[in-house]
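User: I'm curious whether this sequence folds into something compact or stays loose and floppy. Could you predict its structure so I can see for myself?
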Amino acid sequence: QVQLVESGGGLAQTGGSLRLSCAASGFTFSNYAMSWARRAPGKGLEWLCDIRSDGSRTYCENSVKGRFTISRDNAKNTVYLHMTNLKPEDTALYYCAKGARYTDFPRGQGTQVTVSS
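Assistant: Here's the prediction. I'll summarize afterward.
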């Protein structure tokens, strides 16, 4: 079955950076787009970025565009979210998902990112 294991979260200061990783298994990773989403305390799921199966094209929502970048390594079955210039409002539980944004719900446990002001 599909397994997605997120890691790399933690505590960061405002203006800092983090790189999240998502290790995928249970499906042919290189055949699928991948995406990242987050859920902030008391809020709904917010889709952030996605990347094509071959990594040739990426998209990020305006809320994080210019600060967050998505990438992937098909040889390692891993997708990444590079986060820079972090803000307190980026505090959330971050998930990866199989497929482009809005096509599937996150199945992993997520990784917590907390940004202090």
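Summary: DSSP finds no helices and ten strands in the chain. The first strand starts at residue 3 and ends at 7.
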